[in-house]
Amino acid sequence: MIRIGANPICWSNDDMTEIGGDIPLEQCLAEAKAIGIEGMELGNKFPKTAEALKGKLAEFGLAFISGWYSTFLLERDADAEFSAARAAIALRKDAGAEVLIVCECTRTVHGTKSAPLSSRPVMSEEEWALFLPRMTRFAELVREAGLQLVYHHHMGTVVQTGAEIDRFMAGTGEAVQLLLDTGHATWAGADPVDLATRHADRIGHIHTKDVRAAVAAEAAEGDWSFLDAVLEGVYTVPGDGTVDYPSVFRALPDYAGWVVIEAEQDPEKANPKQYVTLGYANLVRFLDEAGLRRAA
């Protein structure tokens, strides 16, 4: 079954906390519930303990999905990474999550407003040889701890392009699953339908955001940073851009899990309730068109 969730980044940004910084957590959760959202991912305004986190979400009838964890496996081995991640893993598991969302953030530029995307890190052959087995081992340790690792490819990081995603998946073991992010894939020049088709049996989580192609082109021409492009509206909710969502979902006939709206925009320009309402309605329609069953 499919469940539709949301990430609070639709209301308040984590990379630039001043974006939506004035929007109370309670407003975010109340609006999400009213729209039809069933669960939420983690954000900077959420309680910091599992008990308090579950309690706050329960006030609004929402489930906890999971939250981002930054790995640094180019700098430390899997055992050291696992030791560093223990608290994050425990919080997510105890709050009811089934997956751990990870992204390799060594030398990333996605959170640096002054760094153009053209300066993002690209791994050497030696780094790939180091990184892939470390990620596999880390995922195995995470699985032993009770969560499934899902890897979030992301603009500005070492796994950004379609070719890098394919190499990552080919070089890691079955303990590693993919978080398919339609927006990051599209902006990076990859076709999310092709990615879904190739990696269908290892996709464990889905983030849905759409891309405004004109803004993406302007960002490339102007050598913008990730955050500058976000502020200018490169991302929007599903159905408001160029992604062919029915084809993405038709490529995943056996997928069961969360489909999360994670479309960061400037709330001063794009009202979060209005846009998440639009994205939710579009997702319901796209899932129905693809014949995927949603949880009752």
TrEMBL record:
InterPro entries: IolE/MocC, IolE/XylAMocC-like, Xyl_isomerase-like_sf, Xyl_isomerase-like_TIM-brl. It comes from the Bacteria. Residues 29-270 form the Xylose isomerase-like TIM barrel domain. PANTHER family: HYDROXYPYRUVATE ISOMERASE (PTHR12110), INOSOSE DEHYDRATASE (PTHR12110:SF41). This is Myo-inosose-2 dehydratase. It comes from Aureimonas glaciei.
